[in-house]
Design goal:
TIM Barrel; 342 residues; globular; binds coproporphyrinogen III; single chain
Amino acid sequence: MSSLFLDTLRGRRGGRVPVWFMRQAGRFLPEYRRIRERVGDFFELCRNVELAVEVTYLPVRLLEVDAAILFSDLLVPLLPLRSMEVNLKEGVGPLIELKEPLDSPKKLLHSYCVEEELGFVGAIVRGFKREHPDVPLIGFCGAPFTLLSYIVEGGSSKSYHRTKRLMFERPSLFRDLCDRLVDLLVDYAVMQVSSGVDAFQVFDSWAGVLSPSDYRSFIFEPTRVLIEKIKATGVPVIYFSTGTCGCLKVIRDYPADAVSVDWRVELADAIDVLGSHRVIQGNLDPSALFMPRERLKERAEGILLQGTRAKAHVFNLGHGIFPDTDPDRVRWLVEVVHHFTP
Ligand code: CP3
């Protein structure tokens, strides 16, 4: 399919800059909260094909963003594993309880039939594309480091010390675990693409806790392999991370079509490192949505102006929308982006 969003990811500039937001289908939307209340458990909503299709479409209908992102979660590919219990605790976040030790990667991250266990994800993608064939749909998965950090820490963390300790103390085990995750994630990504997603984003939300040289030594290679294999399916791939402005020279070497950066780096500086042949995505601070409108507009336009230095630009936040954000403000920001001419 062709669209402004997909053309931009492929490096062709259209008349305007496309925009979507991370966590656009989430708790800041009252419509989401109402649907979520009906279902109760978060992962039940992820498994409910009809409702997940509806939630995926909500931000396109309500905010007029240029792309939808599959409603699911980073942790979904861990749900079929017999070696762990995965839950989302209200107000706390993800909690993971291991039933196998970390030092048996083949047992901990055993293979499973993705069609059988996670067929609902494929069904959501097909359902969405049937109802909304003209809306580009982004599939996604976690990057090996970010997903492994949830397994090792048992949930979110401030320091990621346990994950880094494992990485430094037992580097070959760390590598085996990353490689096992990549195998599972490739199957999962291929299923999303064969079901119909038009683009794919790899989320490396917590890679910014690593020094640039450790990033290069420990996680570059498994992440590169994941990106390369997803790219081989034919869809454009976006690599997203936060706090990694010191690692952009490493990230430059990924075969990703686009790189998403956060607000800790000026977009123009990121483009200088990544190269003007690269598509850039980003990079408004999600907290900036709480500024007065005129200042928010200035901020957004500053980013859009810097984005003209890249091969092409997809406007986004540097990370997910906060749940207390005013949906009207988000809708207005979409208009600001759509009306921008450099
Ligand atoms: O709108 C979208 O972006 C699509 C859906 C989506 C969700 N999670 C829905 C969700 C996507 C792409 C994700 C990815 C995800 N999940 C990431 C990577 C992006 C990022 O923010 O860094 C991560 C780290 C996770 C793990 C996870 N899941 C966390 C940290 C949380 C939040 C905990 C909390 O309560 O704030 C979740 C839960 C989650 N995933 C929610 C949603 C809408 C909120 C759950 C709810 O309804 O209570």
